[in-house]
Amino acid sequence: MIKKGMRRQIVLHYILVVFVALLLVETIFLLSIRTYYYNSIYSKITTHISVAETLVKYEFSEDRSQAQLEKLLKLFNVEFTELEVLTLKGDIITSSTGFQPDRTITTSDVPEAVGGNIGRWVGRQAGTNENVMAVSKMVQITAHDTYVLRYLTSMEGVNSNLLNLTLLSIGIGVAVLIIVLLLSFGLANSIVRPLNNITAVSAQMAKGKFTTRIKGDYRYEIGALASTLNYMADEIVRSNQIKDDFISSISHELRTPLTSIKGWSETLVSGGYDPEETKLGVGIISRESDRLIGLVEEILDFSKLQQNEMKLSMGQVDIKVLLQETLLNIWAKAEKKRIHLLLECEETIFIKGDANRLKQVFLNLVDNAVKFSPEDSSIVLSAERLSGTEMTVTVRDSGIGISEAHLSRVRDRFFQVDALNGGTGLGLAISQQIVELHSGKLEMDSELGKGTQVTVILPLDDSQQGNARVSNPPIT
What we know:
Its EC number is 2.7.13.3. The protein is α+β, with helices and mostly antiparallel strands. It is built from eleven helices and twelve strands. A five-stranded antiparallel β-sheet has the order 2-1-5-4-3. It has a five-stranded mixed β-sheet with strand order 7-9-10-12-11. A two-stranded antiparallel ribbon has the order 6-8. Helix 5 (156-206) runs parallel beside helix 6 and helix 7 packs across helix 11 (427-437).
């Protein structure tokens, strides 16, 4: 007995389908063979009657003698059949066997023959209980003599042959089912064994052993499943590594400002410092506190985005004004590295969005550009209509650039191209999700050592769609 499981289901369903198919085929085949044999006998008798009927007018006279009945039996007789001559009421007059029972034939073939058709009946003969076929036909011998000729032929031989054929068909069917059973076991094992292997490896993964992999060259859907689970394990390992790197990085990021705050707090508490030193210490504490707040807010923003809890305050946004505010906020940091910030923007570009969140995106992009650009370089922030329904904001720098290997991962959460520059590795991931919440796209193009270009594509405000472009000179 096969234990419960997919193997048994496959075998049972496979056997059931083949069994039903074989049953239908063999039933149709055997019925067709039986019909063929029965119709062949019936056709032989009816053909002989038709031929004999053409000779009646040449062979018989108006004489109703016994010799005439004997001539009738001889003319219409068919080999291996018994011929009975009946009255129209079904009474037997004579037969080819010479046996003349005093009885009336009541089977359905006689009334059919009297009605003008060729009657046919198959059943058990009274007295002998033998399976026979009766074929009856009304024949007019002379103008005054009309008889019913009834042929009886045994069907025992035919039925015996049909039985043998049925047994042979059943034997063939059983052999086919055995072969199908063996094949279905092979088919079930080819599916179940890989699944058992995949299940065992998945159980190991569920216990945290993500270094285990599904081995084996599986094909089709099972191969795709194995590849997907292996890919999932790789991603979990990578995510765990990123998480560990993030924890290490954020710990360092938090420790630095906390160390400064604690150090200056203790120093100020101890007293004895002049106002200038006190002012310097308070300023450092304030800046480091702001830095801590920024780190915490970045983590909270990312958490909200991951849980789809970030709410946008939508309104009409003037892109030029927003970009000008962005440059003013980042200007002091750029000035320290003598980096020139250039703004190229058309007039009257409006979109529908959350101004604060979009400003957060552009601040992050420009801040990254400043962070990774050399001194005495330039960063261009440009905006223009892309079509009647979209506009773009581009941040272009000539900094260190990003390698092709890192470019595909730079927007992943917690990923940092250069961990020495600090940060949580969440900025670009948050920016991309904010852009997507505005039904936009964030695209990056970079070449190592030559710079990076980040493009944000956003839909225009409905009232601005289709407006003509207005060219404006660059703003520095």
